[in-house]
Amino acid sequence: MKTVDLLTPNAGLRVFISGAATGIGAAIAEAFLETGASVYVCDINPAAVEEMKKKNPAIHVGVADVGKWEDVDAVMQDAQDKLGGLDLLINNAGIAGPTGAVEDITPDAWDKTIMTNLNSQFYFLRRAVPLLKQTSDNPSIITISSVAGRLGYQFRTPYASTKWAIVGLMKSLAIELGPDNIRVNAILPGVVEGERMDKVIAARAEALGLTFEAMREDYVKKISLRRLVTTQDVAAMALFLSSPAARNISGQAISVDGNLEYL
């Protein structure tokens, strides 16, 4: 096989992506569809799920609150029925969580962030791993963490805590599942262009008493390449990690962030 051929995931790969009706997840889903993969996505927003299906008729969709294991079990069973198995799980679902000093964060806001960002990863893994053990088509897991999973992030402690935990989960699973030929890696996106990041910047600007424009410029100055990343940048990394070219890459936390120096 030529080196260039190694860079494309196998056609017909069966892929499940959580939280993928919009943003990074949607970009990843559409990238895999373009390679000929069979893709199932879930999201909490029924309208966004319907729009995703309308835009990509070949995709399989489901609605789920990923913080509820019962919802996760339901969509995973639906995905198994429709895909006929699983070759790749991408644990993408997550929320920004609250912005504020630790003493001002409510227990409910903390718990919701943990449930959505971290507990959901476990809920999907417990259903996906048995399916991945049954396939020989380069099985793997990609967990979406964040650059906040390698750097401290003031006023965003719930979010950062979950993203660090996801890296620990990935590292442990890479060891646990390696003998079953299942690779596990994490992608750590940096400051990603889009509506979600705009909301994060706005909330942080308010917390620090700055304008949105000043806060955005502050983010850009922290990036060595002096530009934000796109959802397509993250999708490209997901394609690579699921391709034959990455057959010996496991247990890695890979940043896609333009070299974000600090938060």
UniProtKB/TrEMBL annotation:
CDD domains: SDR_c. It comes from the Bacteria. SUPFAM superfamilies: NAD(P)-binding Rossmann-fold domains. InterPro entries: NAD(P)-bd_dom_sf, Sc_DH/Rdtase_CS, SDR_fam. Pfam families: adh_short_C2. Belongs to the short-chain dehydrogenases/reductases (SDR) family. PANTHER family: SHORT-CHAIN DEHYDROGENASES/REDUCTASES FAMILY MEMBER. This is SDR family oxidoreductase.
